[in-house]
Specification:
single chain; alpha+beta; Rossmann fold; 2 domains; two-stranded antiparallel ribbon; 5 helices; 50% helix
Length: 213
């Protein structure tokens, strides 16, 4: 027995104090760890709920945009078919979007078969399909009508007029037909070399004629 006691070695009289000090440190770190785990769990729950709400809102908005796009496109081309599809419906918030459009009387297997004007009108139709969901009081269009021929410019201007009752449009353009439908036109001229000058023209209707004031 004596040999066994001697084998243990000298007794650490400070062991109780060391134990209390280490236990106190352990309890503190354990509390911090528990708080972190709870915070992680709470954050994951919030993220999960947010993702669920985002998915629901996205799908509702997407369906609205889809229907609006069909209507705007048909209005542009006086017929035809158009649709917006998700490339990965199982994961809508991470999915790509595929646009299909075919003017009346034209079979289209790819949008590359559309003319530049048709592609431009398709893009404009998507823009206004989204615009209908949450209209803005102010909109800037920078040479959107540049790739359009005269017939498509008329369609484009007609759409702008329809929306101008609720939204103020500022259109940057070189197209005379677009200029004609404006209420106010601003131009930049250079009467002297290196010196730009702003001019403005207001249009008003008098009877059946358009006169400049």
């Amino acid at each position: 027995m004596k040999a066994r006691v001697e084998a243990i070695g000298s007794v650490n009289l400070l062991a109780p104090e060391d134990y209390e000090r280490v236990k106190k440190r352990y309890d503190f770190l354990k509390g911090q760890s528990d708080d972190l785990e709870k915070a992680i769990s709470d954050i994951n729950s919030i993220i999960s709920e947010a993702n669920k709400q985002i998915k629901e809102n996205f799908l509702v908005t997407f369906e609205q945009a889809k229907e609006n796009f069909k209507n705007v496109y048909a209005n542009f081309f006086e017929g035809g078919t158009a649709d917006i599809l998700l490339t990965d419906p199982s994961n809508p918030t991470e999915s790509g979007v595929e646009v299909k459009a075919a003017p009346p009387g034209k079979k289209v297997s790819s949008n590359t078969q559309l003319s530049s004007g048709e592609n431009a009108l398709t893009a404009i139709a998507i823009l206004f399909a989204l615009f209908q969901i949450k209209p803005s009081p102010f909109c800037i269009l920078d040479e959107v009508d540049a790739p359009l021929d005269d017939a498509n410019v008329v369609r484009f201007n007609k759409l702008i007029k329809e929306y101008s009752h609720k939204t103020q449009f500022v259109a940057i353009t070189h197209n005379k037909r677009t200029m004609e439908m404006a209420d106010v036109m601003y131009g930049i001229t250079m009467e002297e070399f290196g010196v730009s000058k702003l001019i403005s023209v207001k249009y008003r209707k008098v009877g059946e004629e358009n006169k400049v004031s």
